[in-house]
Structure formats: C-alpha cells, structure tokens
Write a structure and sequence with these properties.
188 residues, alpha/beta, six-stranded parallel beta sheet, 4 helices, 20% strand, binds pyrazine-2-carboxylic acid, binds zinc ion
Length: 188
C-alpha cells in the first residue's frame, strides 16, 4: 500500500528516528515500528527518483541524558550515541547522499523535533525546499513535534499516517487532530 505522494525537487522526505531502540526488541520499542521499514523504503525510492531531498533524523543521546529515568526524565535509557540501539534499522535503505540529522545530543536538554537545535530549517530553505513529508517514529513524540515545527517554519507539511506509529496507541487520534489543527495534511 504505497501512500500517494507526488514527489518533486522542492520536497524533502523526513524519515524520523527509524532506529533499533524504537523497533521491536529495542529499549523503547514502538509496536509496529519495524513493520514500517518496507513502506518507508518505497517512499525513499520514490523521493529519490523525483529528485526530492531525503533526510533521516536520529535520536542521539549522551550517556546519562536528562530524559532518562535515572536522571529524573520520562524515558528508559535509549538511543545512546554509538550503541547498537541508536543505529538505524538495518533494513532501512538510506541512500548514501541522504542527509543525516542527530538531535537531543546535549546532556541537559531533550529535543523531540528534528528542527530543534539542528539548523535543519535553514538548511532546507537553502536547498529550496517548500514542502516536508514525514514518516517514522514515534508518531506521538518526535514525528508530531517535527511536523509542528516544520509547519511553524513555513513549510507545507504532510504526514504519511500509515508509515508512523505511536509509543502510546491511545494518543494516535489526538495526534492526528493536533496536526490537522496546525494545517498539516494527513495522507494514508
Ligand atoms: C522519541 C521518546 C524519547 C522519538 C525520542 O523519537 O519519538 N521518543 N525520545
Ligand atoms: Zn530520546
């Protein structure tokens, strides 16, 4: 089931945090995470053929990051820099020239949006990007925050809803509502 997006050179496909720790068997596993990989690979292929920019973000925490429970945060230890859990899912077919963005790298501050503290917004504008298309993990955390910030940065923004899963399944509908309220298009 390939989502219907016509990619072009003004588009950026943002693949959010498709890392082992967010997939089954990982430290902060999202149900259905690994199963997104083939569909996301189809999007990467379609985007590449159309000359769209492909961006892959990763959650990239130092040891003892402030978001970890033993430091008073909300999350188990996950996506620690240079550990297998922080690596991209092995099945993810990222072209060599895809842009990699690491986020939440400071000890004392968490960041859910791939735009937060990364300079990604300015970079996309420099590249002439007008629209951002999102997929990946997790819908209710980093995908949602990245989509909202993309829209605030002035990009037309589209979520591929069949290619994103939440940490908390009960949060799914509220996420879609939040995104729609922010003028973000949702496409199955
Ligand atoms: C994420 C929880 C904690 C995400 C990152 O990528 O959605 N979720 N850190
Ligand atoms: Zn994190």
């Amino acid at each position: 089931m390939a989502p219907r997006v016509n990619y072009g050179p003004d588009d950026a496909l943002l693949v959010i945090d498709m890392q082992n720790d967010f997939c089954e068997g990982g430290a902060l596993a999202v149900t259905g995470g690994a199963a997104l990989v083939p569909g996301i690979n189809d999007q990467i292929q379609a985007a590449k053929e159309a000359g769209a920019l492909i961006v892959a973000s990763r959650d990239w925490h130092p040891v003892d990051h402030v978001s970890f429970t033993h430091r008073g945060g909300n999350w188990p230890v996950h996506c620690v820099q240079d550990t297998p859990g922080a690596a991209f899912h092995l099945g993810l077919a990222l072209p060599n020239d895809a842009i990699r963005v690491s986020k939440a790298t400071a000890f004392d501050r968490d960041a859910y949006s791939a735009f937060d503290g990364t300079g990604l917004g300015g970079y996309l504008r420099e590249k002439g990007i007008k629209r951002v298309i999102l997929c990946g993990l997790a819908l209710d955390v980093c995908v949602q925050e990245t989509a909202l910030e993309a829209r605030r940065e002035g990009f037309a923004t589209l979520l591929l809803s069949a290619l994103s899963e939440p940490v908390y399944s009960e949060a799914r509908e509220a996420c879609y509502q939040n995104l729609q309220n922010a003028d973000i298009e949702i496409v199955a």
